[in-house]
Amino acid sequence: MQGLVQSVFDKLLPPACPTYTGLLPLITTLLQDRSCFRAALSKGLGLGIVAAAGLIKLPQIVSIVTSRSSAGLSKTTFLVETFGHTYNLAAHVRQGYPPSTYGDFAALLVQNYVLLVLIYAYSGQPALGVSIVVGAVSLLGGMCNSGFPLGLLQTLTAGNVVLVFASRLPQALANYRAGSTGTLSAVTCVGMWLGATARIFTTLTEVDDPSILAGYVAAAVLNGIIAGQVLYYRGIKSRRGTQPSPAKKVQ
Prior knowledge:
Mean pLDDT is 85; it is low at 245-251. This protein has one domain (36-231). By secondary structure, the chain is mainly alpha-helical. The protein is built from 11 helices and no strands.
């Protein structure tokens, strides 16, 4: 049992930390060695983000299915976001980065596939939604293949900031113009903002790529705006719902 625990910790601990020899020595090292503490914190955050990513869009899926509507959701946002997750996942895999830095892309992609099918189904285009998802899965497989130019993936990641704006800005503008966020899930939107914010730290610690970092900074800003809109417009709706109706005039 002790050997199994040591094996697990040795795989989880970042290179900046010494080999695991016990819980107490590990805690002591974390408290005394700043580089080990920073690396371990980044690793822990990364694994936490990956775990949370597997659940973060479930409230949005439930919201659509429950209301039987995709009102307020921008197709452009989900299409561009799916493309971005696809090439970013492929780039991380091809360049050998730790799974803790990109596992959330895989989890988010699976949920986006479900969301795209639902969005197009409730828009009266179910076949188109399925076709788009099949194409997206095929594209991911092609990009992860060694035959796909790695240089092209790196070029795409260099444009992460542009892609973030292209994916999130249409949703933010749609919310502003409608004065509502429709069936957008507050839990999902706030979670996406927190995840992007945490990824800034993990990227600074574990990934030496300014373009990926810039993408997360942009994502944190745009996701923060959308999360703020959800809370703001829901607050207005809630206040309107609690206002008493005007009294009828006596004839």
